[in-house]
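Narrative of activities, Objective 1.

The group set out to show that a structural description can be obtained from nothing but a protein's sequence at a throughput compatible with the screening campaign. Below is one input-output pair from the validation batch, recorded exactly as produced.
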Amino acid sequence: MSKIQAIVFDLYGTLIDVETDEEKNEIYDFLSLYLSYYDMNISSSKLRKAFATEKANNLNSRHERYPEVNFQEVFEEILKREGSTNSFLVKSCCKLFRIISRNRFQLYPDTVPVLNEIKNSGLPIGLVSNAQKVFTANEMRILGIQQYFKHMVFSSRFGITKPDHRLFLVVCAMLDVSPANAVYIGDNPYNDVKGAKKVGMTSILLSRQLKSVIPGYEPDYYATDLWDAWEWIKQNNY
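Output recorded for this entry:
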């Protein structure tokens, strides 16, 4: 293994413990009510249908193997059809959608302690996440971890999702390191391990409960938690 000069993380399922349900009726009920305060009378059922339609259109417009939807663009189209071009309202809808869909939202106990250890070591830290920038940056700030990341890659910004290898190349360029000198830590063998290995990054698969194995996507190391991952990096790097 080449000397590690940077550590890159996945976000949800790795640093943030989150569970969402985007099929909740309450999402569209509340959004419909919220929009009525801005003189838009769009029913909950109509809003649900419009969201599904615009989401599909947004994905189809990418012409990529691993396309990513952009919630902000989706709500822009929905509100435009209702006669509004209010950018604040678009972002508000995205954030309300996210808030109402969440069932669980918290840091893992080892997240901050390990990030502090890495920060104190002097190794730069990056992030590549299949996530919506419109609310993910806020969620990182709310949980107090945005300060650790100067270089963040959100899939919604690029229109592609992991395991597309280009996202991993982008973060390495941001960090000014060769992929061979970076390690990626994530919890999904397909999205995280496949993409990292494609560009030559060392990969660590975080398996807090059961070990996930997908033939052909074996990581360089299986870690039981973030402490385990960090200890392995230190042992192999110093």
